[in-house]
Amino acid sequence: MNGFQYYTPTKVVFGKDTEHQAGALVREFGGTKVLVHYGKGSVKRSGLLDRVFQSLDEAGIPWVELGGAVPNPHLSLVHEGIELCKKEGVNFILAVGGGSAIDSAKAIGYGVKYDGEVWDFYEKIAVAKDSVPVGVVLTLAATGSEMSNSSVITNEEGWLKRGYSSDLGRPKFAIMNPELTYTLPEYQTMSGCVDIMMHTMERYFSHEMNTELTDSLAEGLLKTVMHQAKILLKNPQDYDARSEIFWAGSLSHNGLTGCGRVGDWACHQLEHELGGMFNVTHGAGLAAVWGSWARYVYMNDIPRFAKFAVNVMDVPYNYADPEKTVLEGIEALEDFFRSIHMPTSVRELGVELTEAQILELAYKCSHMDKRTIGGIQKLTRSDMAEIYRMAK
């Protein structure tokens, strides 16, 4: 097991009706003028936004609002939020929504405290030194951004999707009421389940040995999500299943399932370019590329992939042919994705990739030939292109 730091400063307030505590929590963490940042119409139609505004009013905290966060959140809206915060003297940002609103709120927080272009952080040419604090009222179990240090933004100029990680961006609190997810469409719910699984698997697929506790935590989380996802297919308003998925989303991306090892993250990087170019739903995009990535790299660590097949996918270990165990495990996960109506190819996302698009995706994913990706195998630009072809 490698040495590590585990830092999770976010205060979690979990349960029914917890959104009514938003104002008191903002005040607890020093907020005196708040930007409430959210997506499109669902938080308004459901009445959630009004309940949040009422909570802030009752706490005596003035607020301004900025809606419009979209999946694969846009840099232009981040710029708008930065200007609004500076104009209004905002000193706290409350994100109401899922990962898009949270990631956008984090970027706004960085930008308010920075004299330059906030995109500098996402292009890794600057490091954030300060940020406006962020709180969260979560409405979607998926990205884990409510407890993580990461934020992903899409720059419409070139449709580049880039991530930035800083502990300054970790939310001060996360309000998590599973009932707020009852009305989510099936596709969004299942995409979220895949995203949660992939945050765990990106850490699980690692060359580090002797990480039994961390492995067991990850394996248990994965099996829980798979079990509860099947329940939600039949009954989207099962509170207990929604609760399990909600909590799994936070634990999958707050660092717990990666303690003691270095993760891979190649699938996320590959999907980011698909999301940037075609605006596909993140979890669905991950499901579409994972099998191709796994088949491309598994020979670099057959024991790790076999362990996943046996402990997570319940594939019997083939002592005479461990490689067969691995391939059956990959197929078993793809079968699970299909069972929850998730894609296993890019075509099933509604995208017909051309060779020119494949080459462009690989070029962007390699940051214009400036980096490799992955841990199980270091992937070059040509490797990335081949995985896109396999996933086509």
TrEMBL record:
Residues 190-391 form the Fe-containing alcohol dehydrogenase-like C-terminal domain. CDD domains: BDH. Keywords: Oxidoreductase. Residues 9-178 form the Alcohol dehydrogenase iron-type/glycerol dehydrogenase GldA domain. The keyword Signal does not apply. GO terms for molecular function: oxidoreductase activity. It comes from the Bacteria. Transmembrane segments: none annotated. It is an enzyme of class 1 (oxidoreductase). Its EC number is 1.1.1.-. InterPro entries: ADH_Fe/GldA, ADH_Fe_C, ADH_Fe_CS, BDH-like. This is Iron-containing alcohol dehydrogenase. It comes from Laedolimicola intestinihominis.
